[in-house]
Amino acid sequence: MKLHYLLFVLFLWNLGCAQSTGKPITEVSQKELESVVLIDVRTPGEFTQGHVEGAVNVNWFDPNFENRFKEITKDETIFVYCKAGGRSAKAQQKLIEMGYSNVVNLEGGYDAYKATAKD
Question: What is the residue range of 65's domain?
Answer without folding.
Answer: 21-118
